[in-house]
Design a protein that fits this description.
Blueprint lengths: L2 E3 L2 E3 L5 E2 L24 E10 L20 E6 L5 E2 L8 H15 L9 E8 L3 H19 L5
Antiparallel strand pairs: 1-2, 3-7, 4-5, 4-7, 5-6
């Protein structure tokens, strides 16, 4: 997908992640892009990379060779902030960015809090009905979790 604003091409698939100072970098400033609400087959998602040694037991991989060698595992997060293997689908990049900042604070007291990497990315898929349903549901749960107005 290509998006132009005032004659300038905007990369709507740009991912963000933490910089070297463990700050989460925003994709764009609020109001910069009219493409903040994603298309029918697109959604924003949050991926969490954690060293295998710090991964909760129920999510650890089965390849024991890499354990203790600093291997990173990437998982998703639920709308309530729990690590999971199920994909989170969010309706806008801005909401995903706000939730990633919220998660960074929430993870602070967990064993992996200082070593996890949070990344926001945009995903495209052809499962339009499933995406539309889950985007609405997950976004409402995220807003509720963060205490935002659900309108």
């Amino acid at each position: 997908m290509i998006c132009f604003i005032d004659g300038k091409q905007i990369d709507v698939f740009k991912t963000i992640e933490e910089d070297e100072n463990v700050n989460i970098e925003p994709v764009n400033q609020s109001g910069d892009s009219p493409c903040s609400h994603l298309g029918q087959g697109e959604y924003a998602t949050i991926l969490i990379s954690i060293p295998d040694r710090l991964m909760p037991k129920n999510l650890q991989g089965t390849d024991h060779f890499w354990k203790g060698h600093g291997a990173l595992q990437t998982v998703s997060v639920s709308p309530t902030g729990r690590l999971t293997n199920k994909q989170l689908m969010i309706e806008s990049i801005e909401l995903a960015n706000r939730f990633s900042v919220y998660l960074k604070e929430k993870f602070k007291d967990r064993s992996y809090g200082n070593e996890c990497k949070i990344k926001v990315t945009v995903v495209s898929d052809t499962k339009y009905k499933t995406i539309a349903r889950k985007k609405l549901k997950h976004s409402q749960l995220i807003k509720s979790e963060m205490g935002l107005d659900i309108n």
